Amino acid sequence: MADIFDSSLNLEETHFKEGYDEGYTHGLISGKEDAIQVGLKVGFEIGEELGFYRGCVDVWNSAIRVDPTRFSPRAQTGIAQMEELLQKYPLMDPENQQVQEIMDSLRIKFKMVCSSLHVKLDYNGYPKSSSEANDMQF
Amino acid sequence: MLKKKKAAGSSECCCVGMAIESMELKEIQKLQGHTDRVWSIDWNPATGHSGIPLLFASSSGDKTVRVWEQTNLSSNLFTCKAVLDETHTRTVRSCAWSPSGKLLATASFDATTAIWENVGGDFECVSTLEGHENEVKSVSWNASGNLLATCSRDKSVWIWEVQQGNEVECVSVLQGHTQDVKMVKWHPTMDVLFSCSYDNTIKVWADEDESDDWQCVQTLGEPNNGHTSTVWALSFNARGDKMVTCSDDLTVKVWETENIDIQSGGGFAPWRHLCTLTGYHDRTVFSVHWSREGILASGAADDAIRLFVDNNESEVGGPLFKLLLKKEKAHDMDINCVQWSPGEKPLLASASDDGTIKLWELAP
């Protein structure tokens, strides 16, 4: 014979499980929603930065085609290296280990080329190190 | 402990003579003119011999660089010959003469480095190097004068080539330090670059296959008996086989490498810790400079100048350097830079937060 108190004895456990399941389902939905937002934001930012460099490289390359002597050999090497890095960037594979490494190299090459060409170009989204350390230093 | 015998270094002190122990550091002049703290001093290497009066540059928080010249060969008195202003918009942190003495490079907190040329006694800004994201902390010329290095709070070190007509182009951007880079210095004979940083390390950079591909070939940090706090400055001995560094950890460290002559065939010989001068300083050591005669000078936040020499009486395992003298209250505030002049009887110049530069003579 079933214990008539059985269901009330397990009352706490039952409610706990019910609540847990509900919370889990909710978490799954809102977690996915958050992840989509973060993915959209980060993906957009990376796309924007890569697109910015792509645009610069394309314009510089057109300039070189018009006048191959306009830019110094070092600047031209830098532009070619940027082009190579842009092609190598695994756009559709965000978990690829190389992603950060390639972006870092692109940023350095970009700075070097700008310096060689005496132009002041700034990608607006570029993380400024000055914002992270505002303390007085000498 | 250290079983290094000290044959190589001991010859360096011979020129100073026997009486070095009884020498004193005598103030010969106090130069006023800068209206803010004086950060750095650099002697023009093409002066002080062959009948050319000594000349040096000083850079300051007042955004200017001043050039000082010995009034005549027989006196040790200096006058301000030029004020280089209206170019940098913030503190000029460092200055350096090219090996020929014709060009002066100045590094500023305005993120630029300027190159000045002496045109008939007037200094003209002939080139501006832009690229660093923020404050440029130091600038250095290589031995042949065709390469410049700069470093910045942006944690990077840049190498530039100075071409014909003073055209300057970036050769490489070196990233490796994890913090503010305080000073860059080229080796006195080889194209090997040294940088020291707020990340407590000294890094050595070389372009081993000479293809603009500069890489960090060695990092001298805590695991190699290195400094435990910010490394502020470094200097080489005349031969270039020893290097001295100073730090916020209150020590001065001496490093050595294999015989430099053997290295000329290429290949990099690593540096190793030789000794640590500890217990002498009780505040941050900001500057250290090795004279051609082998006297180490240090400038520190306790307003004092200290001189160290090779310890000739040292027994095996004993200290390799000893304190020659300590000049207390050399300045009213922190001493940012000490530099020995070129020439036969070197003078010591010191620059301070008190806005003055002092010239010192080591005399009996």
From TrEMBL, chain A:
Domain (Essential protein Yae1 N-terminal): residue spans on this chain: 19-57
InterPro entries: Essential_protein_Yae1_N, LTO1_adapter
Protein family according to the UniProt entry: Belongs to the LTO1 family.
Designated name of the protein: Essential protein Yae1 N-terminal domain-containing protein
Organism: Crotalaria pallida
Organism phylogeny: Eukaryota, Viridiplantae, Streptophyta, Embryophyta, Tracheophyta
From TrEMBL, chain B:
WD repeats by residue range: 31-69, 85-117, 129-170, 174-205, 224-259, 328-364
Membrane spanning residue stretches: none
UniProt keyword annotation of Repeat present: yes
Signal peptide start-end: none
Pfam families in alphabetical order: WD40
Keyword Transmembrane helix tagged: no
InterPro entries assigned: CIAO1/Cia1 (IPR028608), WD40/YVTN_repeat-like_dom_sf (IPR015943), WD40_PAC1 (IPR020472), WD40_repeat_CS (IPR019775), WD40_repeat_dom_sf (IPR036322), WD40_rpt (IPR001680)
GO terms of biological process kind: iron-sulfur cluster assembly
A single GO cellular-component term on record: cytosolic [4Fe-4S] assembly targeting complex
UniProt keyword terms in alphabetical order: Repeat, WD repeat
Family annotation (HAMAP family): ciao1 (MF_03037)
Family, per entry: Belongs to the WD repeat CIA1 family.
Function, as annotated: Essential component of the cytosolic iron-sulfur (Fe/S) protein assembly machinery. Required for the maturation of extramitochondrial Fe/S proteins.
Protein name, UniProt field: Probable cytosolic iron-sulfur protein assembly protein CIAO1 homolog
The organism's taxonomic lineage, starting at the top: Eukaryota, Viridiplantae, Streptophyta, Embryophyta, Tracheophyta
